[in-house]
Write a structure and sequence with these properties.
95 residues, alpha+beta, two-stranded antiparallel ribbon, 29% strand, elongated, Amphi-Trp_dom, Amphi-Trp domain-containing protein
Length: 95
Amino acid sequence: MSHESDDDEEESERELEYEHHIAREDVITHLESLVDGFRDGGTVTIAFGDETVEFEPPEHMAFEMEYEEHGDERELEFELEWRVQNEDLEIGTTE
């Protein structure tokens, strides 16, 4: 295993998490804003306190939904995953 690729992976890693107890209507507002951003097809901006993340959702991505019960606690998680494509890549011949 190459150390160079390990270093590249470490440099590109970034993880932000938001977890608070808020009213159902506020949850709906957050989800609707996210859906609107995905539907528009442009850049989606999410603020995590004083940090901001911007990304352009692709046409296709992996979607995972998970529901768990632990005693009296319920948990519903959504996960979207995709790879960023290098749009500068050109394959072909020149004349």
